Amino acid sequence: MSIVTSPAQTDALTRLRDAFTAALELAPGVDHETLAYRETPTWDSVAHMQLIVAIEGAFDVMLETEEVLALSSFPEARTILGKHGITF
């Protein structure tokens, strides 16, 4: 069974992947679902702040301090953005 997604959902997922790829300087083909803070070699504290800026810009949102601190993986980023009305 395949999951049907809308173009808006696909676009949101692409924008999130692009934000992670740019901020963390990821190689093409990386599995975004496995990305986690401090487990991904390029995801340190400086890259974390670059990622926050990239996500806020890509989705036109302002993350709360608690959300910035909680954003520790790609799946968690989807969850946090879901609270801002972004669907994946």
Task: Write a brief caption for the model.
InterPro entries: ACP-like_sf. The protein has helices at residues 7-24, 45-59, 65-70, 74-82.
Structural overview:
There is one protein chain. Residues about 1-5 have low confidence and may be disordered. With about 90 residues, the chain is mostly helical. The protein has 4 helices and no strands.
Main sheet record? none
Strand content: under 5%
Task: Enter the CATH topology name.
Answer: Non-ribosomal Peptide Synthetase Peptidyl Carrier Protein, Chain A
Number of helices: 4
Number of domains: 1
- Please identify the top-level CATH class: Mainly Alpha
Number of strands: 0
Write the layout of secondary structure elements.
Elements: H1 7-24, H2 45-59, H3 65-70, H4 74-82
Helix pairs in contact: 1-2
What keywords describe this structure?
single chain, 88 residues, mainly alpha, 0% strand, disordered N terminus
